[in-house]
Amino acid sequence: MIYVCVPVHNEARTAGLVLWKVRQVFTAFQREYQLLVCDDGSTDGTSEVLGRYDRVLPITVVAHRERAGYARSVEELLRLALQRTDRPKRDCAITLPADFVYSPEAMDAMVKGIESGADLVAAEEVAATGLSSRAQRWVRRWTPRLLPVRGVRDTVSGFLALRLITLRQALRHEGDRPKALLHTDGWCANAELLARLVPHARRLETVPVTGRYDMRQRPSRLRPWQTLMDAWRARPVIRGVGIATTALLLLQRPGWGQETTHVASPPAPQAPAAAANSTSAVPFPIGERMRYSAKYGPFSVGEATMEVAGLDTIRGVETVRFRFHIKGGALWYSLDQLLESWVGRADFRSRRFVNATEERGRKRHNRWEIFPDSGFYREEGVDTTRATVADPLDDAAFMYWIRTVPLEVGKRYEYQRYFRPDRNPVIIVVEKKTRISVAGQKFNAILVRPIIPKGRGIFAEQAEAHIWLSDDPRRLMLALQSNFSFGTVTLKLKEFAIPGQP
Q1: Do residues 291 and 303 make contact, with C-beta atoms less than 8 angstroms apart?
Q2: DSSP secondary structure of 301-341
């Protein structure tokens, strides 16, 4: 997840443009993101501009009734990002000015730097257009030299990407009573933030940007003489931050300030290969494949396959791809349906779902991109986003997920997990235990009825679908029965293969 933090004060003319440009960047870049915006006591209609984007962007707006200052706004947004993340070692935050001086397109390179291993990526202004006076140009050039931070030449741009674990480490000495992270304001606060983060960053990178001051739609707030005086006064603060942080880190290392005793630990026992996958939220091995015969009464009308097709990466998240394909027909009716689902390997949440169907010669192709961390989904060809649930699943993912949950005969389970909220709850009725003969074997089975209200397809409420699952740890789908427009079709397991099992 990428948290884009935008502090705003009286930026009504450019705030909407910045937000829309962020959306365009991540539409092309395909990463999950959230916009965190702080409206710091704006009086020019900025709040009305921000309100227009609630339904089309994954945005959270924090509003201050009175102006609290740039530093407080930035710190509040960063703390909010840290509070929301559940993966601080992977997720990052980006601080982005709202005056459109720096193009959000640079976020592409910044995120790639984080994904390649950097903990901190700072944007450095290497060229500028539109500064109105020689004094402003001179101050913009010399202020970073008054506020030096190791590894960064331009310390005052305010355009920064940071891995959230770096921020957590910078804040971990607060104790029970949080203390302000930033004690300066304006450009000085940008340098102070870098000074506090750099000692905790294992790797620091920079990206070049051009300052387009001619794109700013309001008068400049830069007061050259006052800015220089503020920078001069902030020098000891920022220098002290670097010294104090470095000393604290040294004291935490073994051998500094305390004696350490090293005790040799016995080697950990080797876990069996089968247990290696037990820590994964998706327990099914890659390559698991089941083939089914499709029957309409006594007649064979087609076949189906259900498989764990492979691993992919969706927007930086490792995913498992499930594939369900049914093909067949009878008389005037024909059906060729492919359901493909990509779920997070570590969290079993849908990231992408494809439903490609050809029924009676009519083709339909639907694709959804699902952003569980951002709380929305987007359908291909539709230029809007819609809210999703906290832990979304799609039709194909449900067929696998239901194999992982406890099922007690006589119970009715309701799950608010279908990625389209208006079709929840998904209902699972556990009807009975039985015996079934498939694939040349007899299995003890659990008969369940899955229902997706207002849904379409094999699990729609009117389809009256039933699934037979093997009553053993594998929970194989032994058979599936569902009503189609011409009658009831039953899929029966014909053969299956599970890697690592005979």
Answers
A1: yes
A2: EEEEEEEEEEEEEETTEEEEEEEEEEEEEETTEEEEEEEEE
Q: Report the candidate in 247, 233, 129, 219 with the shortest Cα–Cα distance to residue 187.
A: 233
pLDDT confidence tier of residue 260, bands split at 50, 70 and 90: very low
Angle of the 107-115 helix axis to the 15-29 helix axis, nearest 10: 50
Query: In 102-138, which positions are buried (b, 16+ CB within 10 angstroms) versus exposed (e)?
Result: bbbebbeebbbbbeeebbbbbbebeebeebeeeebee
Q: Which tokens belong to 55?
A: 């339904």
- Cα 213 off chain centre by: 33
Distances 28 to 32, 53, 383, 498 between C-alpha atoms, Å: 11, 19, 13, 38
Burial class, 199, CB count within 10 angstroms (exposed 0-12 / middle 13-18 / buried 19+): buried
Q: Cβ distance 447 to 432 under 8 Å?
A: yes
Q: Does 168 score more than 80 pLDDT?
A: yes
Measured CA to CA, the distance from residue 259 to residue 257 in angstroms comes to: 7
Q: Give the number of other CB atoms < 10 A from CB of residue 98.
A: 23
Scan for tokens 């741009």, then name that residue.
Answer: 157
Closest CA to 157 of 217, 229, 78, 103: 103
Cα distances from 443 to residues 94, 315, 468, 474, in angstroms, run 54, 40, 10, 12
Please state, in angstroms and rounded to a whole number, the distance separating the CA atoms of residues 3 and 190.
18
The answer to whether residues 259 and 213 touch, using CB atoms and an 8 Å cutoff, is no
Q: Coil, strand or helix: which one is 378?
A: strand
Q: Which residue has the tokens 């060809």?
A: 381
With contact defined as beta carbons under 8 Å apart, do 60 and 37 qualify? yes
How does pLDDT run across 144-161, given as a tens digit for each residue? Answer: 888 888 888 888 888 999
Q: State the Cα–Cα distance between residues 160 and 122, nearest whole angstrom.
A: 5
Cα distance between residue 33 and residue 59, in whole Å: 9
**Which residue(s) pair with 8 in the sheet?**
39
Q: Pick from 313, 281, 368, 386: which is nearest to 31 by CA?
A: 313
Which H helix or E strand runs over 91?
A: none
Strand partners, 312: 319
C-alpha 201/C-alpha 154 separation (Å) is 17
| 364 CB-near residues (< 8 Å, 6+ apart) | 355, 356, 357, 358
Closest CA to 29 of 87, 96, 115: 115
| Torsion of Cα atoms, 315 then 316 then 320 then 324, to 10° | 10
What pLDDT digit, counting tens, does each position of 321-348 carry?
999 998 877 656 677 889 999 999 989 9
For 297, half-sphere exposure in the C-beta direction (CA atoms, 13 angstrom radius) is: 4
Query: End-to-end CA distance of the chain, in Å?
Result: 40
Which pair of structure tokens corresponds to residue 413? 């389970």
Q: What is the pTM (predicted TM-score) of this model?
A: 0.54
